[in-house]
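Subgroup meeting minutes
Present: P.N., E.W., G.H.
Scribe: E.W.

1. P.N. recapped why we're keeping a running log of single-chain structure predictions: easier to compare across weeks, and new members can see raw inputs and outputs side by side.
2. G.H. added today's entry (284 aa).
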Amino acid sequence: MALVTVAELAQRAAQGGYAVGAFNLNNMEILQAVIEAAEEERSPVILQASQGGLKYAGIDYIVAMARVAAERASVPVALNLDHGTSFEQAMQCIRKGFSAVMVDGSMLEFEDNVALVRRVTDVAHAVGVSVEAELGKIGGTEDDIVVAEKDAMMTDPDEAAEFVERAKPDLLAVAIGTAHGVYKGEPRLDFDRLLAIKGKVSIPLVLHGASGVPDDAIRRACKLGITKINIDTELRVAFSSAVRDTLVSNPKEIDPRKILGPAREAMKRVVKEKMRLFGCSGKA
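Output recorded in log:
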């Protein structure tokens, strides 16, 4: 089937009380791991390309791989730009065939963030592409985007309501206590804030920086309105650990298939675990 929008998947998730996993795509092995997991779990799935992924693989390869996966898959697949940095980049991704874009203006002043997102939504909606925005600053590092802990800022519910009304995004990523990358301690999510935002905003909500968040907290977040959850770090850990183990056990191995194959299987296990945790297994 053709690529679907993230908004379509998130709206169904909102109605069903679950979240759809969004996994960052950097190479073929990651793609295969994610799609095979989605097929076996009968789960909808979101493929994402971050700044690092686009630089590493190239936008044409990313789109081509995602299209092949979607055409062959029997489950819904979306392709999303993750943390787009400009109007121009969002437009490039739309022209190339992305079915969704996330434009990150959270580093900007409120009015500038509104203006950027509204400019993107005006174009994207005209061609059937959904848009995710972010309000509040999520700490940590996401490829080229770094937010220091002292600069991290929770999403204000009243600002969220105004932002959605004026900028018209289809989804909103909220800052409620998560961080990108590897956590130094156990994250504590602000569920009261999430409930307050949910009460003032009618569009699906997104959780970034979910790798490492305790399972119970993830389950509760899904029940309270999170419909899309981003996972990247845990895939990287699974990939690198499997490659390291393979080369330690057989240091003379030179066949890329025998080195990367176990890594693909390790990532697939992580993706399946996340789909079950998010509640999207069986929802294709």
